[in-house]
Structures are given as structure tokens and as C-alpha cells.
Specification:
By secondary structure, the chain is α+β, with helices and mostly antiparallel strands. Strands 2-4-5-7-6 form a five-stranded mixed β-sheet, with helices on one face. A hairpin with a 2-residue loop joins strand 4 and strand 5. Bound molecules: adenosine-5'-diphosphate.
Length: about 220
């Protein structure tokens, strides 16, 4: 798995870098019109954001491993945070059909950055592992005294025998050489560690007729 990680991280770094380099070479070599210029610049921006997300996950995973790492504890408005993140993901992935149903005024007591990382990792996985334009539901609601965040996609789902593995660090299903999707196997590890540290829990269920539902449950802060 360590070797898989190095392979996937190298790939994850190289491909956006190669694409940024190509865009820059195009900018230098050719006198582009305003419209083309904007297109090349926006490709560069996408690649930069991909690198940024990757670096954030690597930093978060290494922070989680450090014995003296402490999470901030503050009041976090999960309703506005989830809404804002859905909007920012929409800007990045125009092909994603995100359907948010978000109850207002739901708070938790925890780390704002870490909460954002959980929400983003779950939504980005749902996009990555399901066909473009398929519905992705993001539900946030109060159940008894708990805040529940559900991210449900209509992709292929996760087989029963894989469900216990997907939260392991560096774990990716399938074989690195033939795998089409991008990733490092850090996302769900980060998600699980953050939720644990906040005394919450995560459930992985099957969506119907296909797909997965990641259900995060934590104590509401009132
Ligand atoms: P990465 O996406 O970088 O591979 P993750 O830790 O986020 O790493 O996910 C681990 C594995 O779990 C993925 O490689 C994929 O096989 C599986 N997985 C995660 N989310 C989904 C999803 N929404 N649908 C299907 N498979 C998923």
C-alpha cells in the first residue's frame, strides 16, 4: 500500500504539473485572443486547485498522525459551511448534479477546517466515483440531538467485502496500473480520523438502486 501510495501521489502530482506546463508554453508561444486566453487560464486554475486539494489532504493526514496534534474547538455552523462548500464544488465541477437539502441553524462544537475537509472529501468522492450528471444528494438534518450529514451518489457503490477497507490509510480499490480514477487513498482515512476525534461516527450504506451513502453522525451543539 505504501508503494501504491507513492505511485498514485507521483501520478497525482505529475499530471496537473504537466498540464500547467503545457498551458504556459501555449501562452508564451501563441498570441491568443481574449476568449482562448481565458480558457487556458481556467484550465491552469483547475489544475492548481487539484494540486491544492492534494496537498491539503497530505498535510491533514500527516497532522492527524502527529501525537501532539490538537483540533480546535469552536462553534461551527455546519449549515452555512455545507452550503458554501456545495457552491464552491459546483463552481469547480460544472458536470456535477449536486442536490443539497440543508436544514438551517445546525451547529457542532469542533474544528471548522477539519469539518470542511470531511464534507469536501465525501462530496468529491461522490463526484469522482459516479457518472457525470447523476444525482448526488447532500442532506444535512437534525435527528434527535444529533446532526446528520449524508452524501448519497448513484455510482457503482462499494461491495460488501470492501466496505471495511475503504477507510484504511492509502487504501484504494482495484489495481494501481489499471485504475482510471485519480486519488491517493487518503480521503476516507482523513474523514474517519476526524469524525472519531469529534466523538462522531460514520456509516457506509448502499444507495438504491445503486451507489453509496456516506452518513456522518455527530452531536449537535445547542
Ligand atoms: P481515493 O479517492 O484517493 O482513492 P479515498 O480514501 O477517498 O481515496 O477512497 C478510498 C477508496 O474507496 C477509493 O479508491 C474507492 O475505491 C472507494 N470509494 C470512495 N468513495 C466512493 C464512492 N462514493 N463510490 C464508490 N467508491 C468509493
Amino acid at each position: 500500500q505504501q508503494n501504491n501510495f507513492i505511485l498514485s501521489i507521483t501520478h497525482e502530482l505529475k499530471s496537473p504539473l504537466a498540464s500547467i506546463k503545457l498551458s504556459m508554453q501555449t501562452l508564451i508561444k501563441r498570441a491568443l485572443g481574449r476568449e482562448q486566453l481565458e480558457r487556458v487560464a481556467s484550465l491552469c486554475l483547475d489544475d492548481t486547485e487539484r494540486l491544492e486539494g492534494l496537498v491539503e489532504n497530505i498535510l491533514m493526514a500527516s497532522r492527524l498522525e502527529s501525537p501532539d496534534h490538537r483540533f480546535h474547538r469552536e462553534q461551527v455552523n455546519l449549515s452555512t459551511k455545507t452550503r458554501d462548500l456545495v457552491e464552491s464544488v459546483r463552481r469547480k465541477h460544472s458536470e456535477a448534479n449536486l442536490i443539497p437539502t440543508i436544514e438551517s441553524g445546525l451547529f457542532i462544537h469542533g474544528d471548522a477546517m477539519a469539518s470542511a475537509s470531511v464534507i469536501l472529501n465525501l462530496i468529491e468522492n461522490a463526484i469522482k466515483y459516479s457518472p457525470a450528471n447523476e444525482e448526488i444528494r447532500v442532506n444535512l438534518y437534525l435527528d434527535a440531538e444529533e446532526v446528520v450529514l449524508e452524501v448519497a451518489d448513484c455510482g457503482p457503490g462499494i461491495p460488501e467485502k470492501e466496505k471495511g477497507n475503504v477507510f484504511r490509510r492509502f487504501y484504494r480499490s482495484g489495481n494501481e496500473e489499471i485504475r482510471a480514477s485519480k486519488g491517493t487513498g487518503l480521503g476516507l482515512f482523513i474523514v474517519q480520523e476526524i469524525i472519531r476525534a469529534h466523538s462522531g461516527r460514520i456509516e457506509l450504506l448502499d444507495n438504491s438502486p445503486t451507489g453509496s451513502i456516506f452518513k456522518e453522525i455527530g452531536r449537535a451543539h445547542v
